[in-house]
Design a protein that fits this description.
11 strands, 3-stranded antiparallel β-sheet, homodimer, Nucleoside Triphosphate Pyrophosphohydrolase, alpha+beta, elongated
Amino acid sequence: MISPINYCPQCSQPVRQGIPEGDDRPRHICDACGSIHYQNPKVIAGCIPVFGERVLLCKRAIEPRLGYWTLPAGFMELGETLAEAARREAREEANVEVELEALYTLFSLPHISQVYAFFRGRMRAELFSAGEESLEVRLFHEDEIPWDELAFETVRRALRLFFEDRHGGNFTFRTEDIGPELNRRPRPA
Amino acid sequence: MISPINYCPQCSQPVRQGIPEGDDRPRHICDACGSIHYQNPKVIAGCIPVFGERVLLCKRAIEPRLGYWTLPAGFMELGETLAEAARREAREEANVEVELEALYTLFSLPHISQVYAFFRGRMRAELFSAGEESLEVRLFHEDEIPWDELAFETVRRALRLFFEDRHGGNFTFRTEDIGPELNRRPRPA
């Protein structure tokens, strides 16, 4: 989500929207101190934790999409690599240590200005539990995946590709663009 | 570069640094309006524009690294896909239309909180010129690449991988972490 900028974060004076010289799109400009405040897409990093044949999913304890199932993933923080962010999110959401294999998917979601990266990950042990942002964490066989109760289109798409590639016996890195077409279903009971 | 936040962009009151409840790292918190202001890594998208055997580079007309050669690349904007951002940057910096092939490299630069994506790209015609941010734009054969006058380690690394893979006859998607080890050389004459 992109936060509103009403006042200059540097000097506190009101900002205006305008196109700076040499630029081609509106920015938040502070005429008092001359600073320009850019807003850019955010990166979400996560992984598909795999233990044997099964995949680990987390039931969300927070909005958005509370009660829906997701892969462990979250906003990349300052000072992190993509892999560090993905491992941290797995720890936070599922108390699980994941050994990351290759980066597997990279999705652009222009309608919400996000870039979404999922690694494939291996769990060394069947050790996990619900972190603070999860109601429940569970391993799922392919035929148990709650396709109608997945939190995000990115998660659905990453899992679809994962099982397709696993059947084919070969994992290939994928980049895709994902639009706003996900049907919002009623919250599961 | 990460901009300082001294005042709340929503309500103009001074912010403090603190760890919000349920969080694990310091954020900018506004006690007046209750908002929390997150800062996250930025994405840079670009491409390796290829025409026949040659690769297109731009000599930077702006800081940082004014006078050094770079691949066309820049900050991803709100509402864009990675590919749209890469094509736009090629247009802006080199007035060139690039048909993007696969995403080729994805670098994490944790010391400057950036994620850097380069596509491989094909130029349909030898049509290009210096955009506002470039002093000069030129096609280079491999043995002409100004290795000592490249602007960024990401560019050097992407080009090294590109020529290695081209010699090998097969391009493979690469993710790497890049540290702050680039030697800062004096500006070229």
